[in-house]
């Protein structure tokens, strides 16, 4: 689930953020959104689904 602080940042400010965790950050419409990285289990499921759907 994405989260945001509501604080607006410029592209320069966003590019100079010091990130100290494993989350994924995106700047969308001057708002920083944070999404947790997917787990290994999630990646395994997505890989299996891609393989199954790709073979149809």
Write up what this structure looks like.
The protein is an alpha+beta fold and 56 residues long. It has one domain (3-54). Helices cover 36% and strands 29% of the residues. It has two helices and three strands, in the order βαββα. Strands 1-3-2 form a three-stranded antiparallel sheet, with no helix packed on it. Strand 2 (24-28) and strand 3 form a beta hairpin. It is elongated. The two termini are 31 Å apart. The model has no long low-confidence stretch (mean pLDDT 87).
Low-confidence stretches: none
How much helical structure, as a percent, in the residues? Answer: 25-40%
Question: Which value, in Å, is the CA radius of gyration?
Answer: 16 Å
Span between N and C termini? Answer: 31 Å
Tally of alpha and pi helices: 2
The averaged pLDDT comes out at 87
Strand content: 25-35%
Structural class: alpha+beta
Overall outline: elongated
Number of domains: 1
**SSE string, helix = H, strand = E?**
EHEEH
Quantity of strands, as a count? 3
Strand order of the largest sheet: 1-3-2
Q: How is the biggest beta sheet arranged?
A: 3 strands, antiparallel
Secondary structure elements and pairings:
Blueprint: E1 3-8, H1 11-15, E2 24-28, E3 31-35, H2 40-54
Antiparallel strand pairs: 1-3, 2-3
Brief rundown of the structure:
The chain has 56 residues and is α+β, with helices and mostly antiparallel strands.
């Amino acid at each position: 689930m994405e989260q945001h602080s509501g604080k607006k940042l410029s592209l320069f400010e966003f590019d100079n953020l010091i990130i100290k965790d494993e989350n994924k950050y995106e700047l969308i419409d001057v708002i920083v959104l944070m999404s947790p990285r997917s787990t290994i289990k999630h990646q395994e499921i997505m890989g299996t689904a891609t393989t199954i759907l790709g073979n149809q």
